[in-house]
Amino acid sequence: MKSINKLLPIRITRAPLLSVIIPCFQAETSLRRAINSIVHQGWRQDDLEIVLSVDDGRDYSWAVNMWPQVTICPCLRRGTGPGPARNRGILAASGQYLAFLDADDAWQEGYLDALMPLVSRHGLAFGKTEIRSAQGDKVLVLGEGQSQLRVQDFGRWPGSFHPVMRRSDSPLFINQPAQDVFHAMVVLGAYGKAAPLVDKATYLLYLSKTSVTASHGFSHQIDRSYRQMLNALNTWPDLPPYQQHQMRKALTLRRNWNRRFLAENKSQKEGPGFYPFLAKTFAKTLALGK
After folding, report:
1. 3-state DSSP: the chain helix, strand, coil percent, rounded to 5?
2. Segment 98-125, tens digit of pLDDT
3. What does 29-76 look like in DSSP terms, one character per residue?
C-alpha cells in the first residue's frame, strides 16, 4: 500500500482483475468480518483489490495487514453518504470488474468463484441475498432457487441484490436512500431482460440495531426516495422503454411494501424491523399457499 497524499487515493502498482468497493463509515468493527470474507475466497492477492472509500475521516490503513492489495480513497468532507462514497470507490478502482460489499456485510466462501465465470461471459451476475440478524441467525433469503434475476423481481423481493460486473458498464450511484437498489436495477435494466442469478453465491446481509436503516424514520425517508426515483426515470438515459416500465412497476411495488410496513408499525417507535416484517409476511403467504 502506498501513501501519496491525504487528498488522493492510495494506489497499488499492478492492475487487478477485480476491485471490491467497500464504503466505510464508523466501520472499524464490522469491516474486519467483511475483509475476512474476501480473504476466505481464496483468490490470489495480485488478482483482487479492496477499495475502501472512507466517509468518516478515520484511519483504515490497518486493513493492509489483512489484505495487501488495498486502495484507500479518502474524502475532503465527512458523512457524504454511501452513494457518493461508492462513486469515489468506482473512480479510484483499477480492476476490470467491480464487486460491491457493505462494511457490515460479508460473502460466503465460494462467492466469487461461483459468479466470476458468468461475469466474464456475460458481463454481469448476481448472487442470492441471505439476511441475517446481528447474531448471525437467518431471517430471510432473497432469490433462492432462481437462476435469473429480472427487474420485476425487485418488486417481488423488496430487498437488495449486489452485482458483480464489468467496471466499464457501471453507472454512478445516486445520493439518496436505497441508492444501491436503484443502481442494481439500472444496471440490470440496461443489460437486458434477465441476468444470471447464482444460487451457490450468497451475499450475507447483517442487520444491526445501530444501523441508520434500522431507525423508524428511515422508512419515511425510503418512501420519499422511491418517489424521487420514479420521477428520475422520466429522464434516465440508456434505459429501454420496456425496462423503464418494469422499473416503474417494481419501484411502485417496493413503495407499497414499505408503506404496508409503516402502517403496521405506525404506533411503535421501534418495530421489528423491515426484514423481519418481510420474513413474517412471506411465511404467512407460503402457509396460505399464495
Report:
1. 40, 20, 40
2. 999 999 999 999 999 999 999 999 999 9
3. HHHHHHHHHHHTT---GGGEEEEEEESS----GGGGGT-S-EEEE--S
Across 115-124, b (16+ Cβ under 10 Å) vs e yields bbebbeeebb
Q: Distance (Å, rounded) from C-alpha 290 to C-alpha 286?
A: 6
What is the mean predicted confidence (pLDDT) over 270-277?
77
> Rounded CA gap, 186 and 244, in Å?
9
Q: Is the pLDDT of residue 249 over 80?
A: yes
Grid cell at residue 200: 451457490
* Closest of 193, 173, 196, 65 to residue 121, by C-alpha: 196
| Helix 274-288, helix 241-264: angle, nearest 10 | 100
Q: What does the pLDDT read at residue 125?
A: 98
Q: What angle do CA 251, 256, 259 make, to 5 degrees?
A: 125
% of the chain at pLDDT higher than 70: 88
Instruction: Return the bridge partners of 48, or none.
Output: 18
b/e string for 141-176 if b means 16 or more Cβ within 10 A?
A: bbbeebeebbbbbbbebbbbbbbbbbeeebeebbeb
Output phi, psi for 125, to 5 deg. Answer: -155, 155
Q: Which amino acid is at 265?
A: N
What letter represents residue 122's amino acid? H
